[in-house]
Amino acid sequence: MTQVIEPIINRVTQSGIVTLDLERYYPDGERVFFDIKAFLFMGLILKEKDFREALKNHDWTQYSGKHVAIGCSTDAIIQLWAYMLLVSYLSPNAATVVCGGLDSLEAVLWQQALAKGVVPEEYQDKRVVVKGCGEKVVPPFAYGEVGRLLQPFVKSLMYGEPCSTVPIYKAK
Fold first, then answer.
1. Please, what is the Cα angle at 48 between 93 and 56, to 5 degrees?
2. Cβ–Cβ contacts within 10 Å for residue 46, how many?
3. I need a labelling partner for 81 at 20 to 30 A (CA). Which of 29, 51, 98, 146 fits?
4. Residue 172 Cα distances to 15, 125, 126, 140, 156, angstroms
5. pLDDT band at 14 (very low <50, low <70, confident <90, very high)
6. What is the pTM of this model?
């Protein structure tokens, strides 16, 4: 009796699923939190004259090429003009400046990276799976943002790995 060996069929390859790995768009560069607290009287009170003088004497070159989030670690009331002034000092040196915490900075970096790197039209009418696991930390914001970018174009959107996906969206 002869045994017929069936060829192994890779159904994932035949499915036409396109994998999108968000790690490819990971925004490199050092992230830094600029704490306004260090420039406040008793860590709580913004005295304009002292604040301006301290900023004038600060070494801004240490932020060269870095991504900087501006915020205050205390419950001090910071006038809005102070953020504008800080941005004016940081912008000539820093790669990115965001008013808010490190989470806000990360969201802005990912939004810029995905807007620049992902071309939604390339996924027109395709079945796309957004890769779920990897070496680098990809924040929830990035998954939401890529979903928002791709949904108007894709035939279907999934999360996970091509062999094991979670359905997210299917065009009608």
1. 30
2. 17
3. 29
4. 19, 11, 13, 26, 9
5. very low
6. 0.83
